[in-house]
Amino acid sequence: MNLHIIALFKFNENYLMEAVELFQNLVKETRKEEGCLQYDLIEDKDNKGTFFLIELWESVDHHNRHNGQDHLLDFRKDASKMMESTVEVYKGFKIY
Questions:
Q1: Start and end of every ABM domain (predicted)?
Q2: What are phi and psi of 84, to 5 degrees?
Q3: Nearest 5 degrees, angle CA 89-CA 21-CA 7?
Q4: Fewest beta carbons less than 10 Å away: which of 34, 41, 78, 82?
Q5: Cβ burial 25-53 (10 Å sphere, 16+ → b, else e)
Q6: For 28-50, what is each residue's pLDDT tens digit?
Q7: Per-residue pLDDT tens for 50-64?
Q8: Dist CA 14 CA 8 (whole Å)
């Protein structure tokens, strides 16, 4: 069963350029992963510094493997210094 994920990030406005660079690398590398069906970065149109990752994974196992990838671990380490708050993550399965 496909796993849908929305992850919400709020970055300090002083770090927007750096955040976008980190996201670009993360998205590029993640899209190469087996089981990644969608991995898109969205910037909130009304809230500067707020980003969403819209993810679709072939299975929970594929997403679990993603969580151990170096590019994601590096992103988490580097991004944590620039964020205003912790990441909010919502995971679920399509109902209809």
A1: 3-93
A2: -80, -30
A3: 5
A4: 34
A5: ebbebbeebebbeebebeeeeeeebebeb
A6: 999 999 999 999 999 999 999 99
A7: 999 999 999 999 999
A8: 18
